Amino acid sequence: DTGVSQDPRHKITKRGQNVTFRCDPISEHNRLYWYRQTLGQGPEFLTYFQNEAQLEKSRLLSDRFSAERPKGSFSTLEIQRTEQGDSAMYLCASSPGGLSGYTFGSGTRLTVV
Amino acid sequence: AQRVTQPEKLLSVFKGAPVELKCNYSYSGSPELFWYVQYSRQRLQLLLRHISRESIKGFTADLNKGETSFHLKKPFAQEEDSAMYYCALSETGANNLFFGTGTRLTVIP
What we know:
The structure holds 2 protein chains of 2 kinds. In chain A, 0% of the residues lie in helices and 50% in strands.
C-alpha cells in the first residue's frame, strides 16, 4: 500500500460538464475526507465518511457536488455542471480514527475553462 | 469567521538563523492544533500536533491559550526546511480540520 491515491492528477473540463474524481485510501483506514484548496488558501473541508456512511458535509458542498463511498473503500467526488469557481485542487485524506493519523493524497487539480 | 490566522504569507530566513512561523486561532473551546508541511512537489503531511508535545525535525510548537497562539519554532533553520507550512485547528469532538492560509518559508543558504 503506497498511501492515499487520487485519480486523475489533473483534469481540464469545459464549463457545464460533469467531472468525477476517485480516491483510494490506505486500506486499513475507515475514515475518508475530501478537502478543496484554491490558490493562496489552505485546504477547506468538504465532507467526511466513516466506512460507507457520509457523516458530515460542509456548506461548501453545494447541490452540484456529491460524494460516495459505496463499499467503505474507495470514494468518488462528482461535480455536476462545473463552474469556473470550481477550479481548485481537490484533496483526499484518510485516517484510521482521530485526527493525528491523517494521510493526504497528492490531489486532483481541476481547471474549468 | 476565520478560525486560524497565519499573518505571514512569505518568510525568508538565513540558514542557521532562528525561525518562527506565527499561528493564531479563534475558538472558545479546547482546540486541537496541528502544523502541516508541504515540501516542493510532495503531498501535505503532518509535522506535529500540540497534544504530543514532541519535537519533529527540530521544530516545536507550544499552545498558548492566553494568547490563542500556536507558533512554530526552530532554533537553527536548515535549507531543507524550505516549504509551505499550514497551521490547522480541530474543534472539540470534530472530525475535520480548519486550515490557515499558509506561510511559505524560504531558508537562504
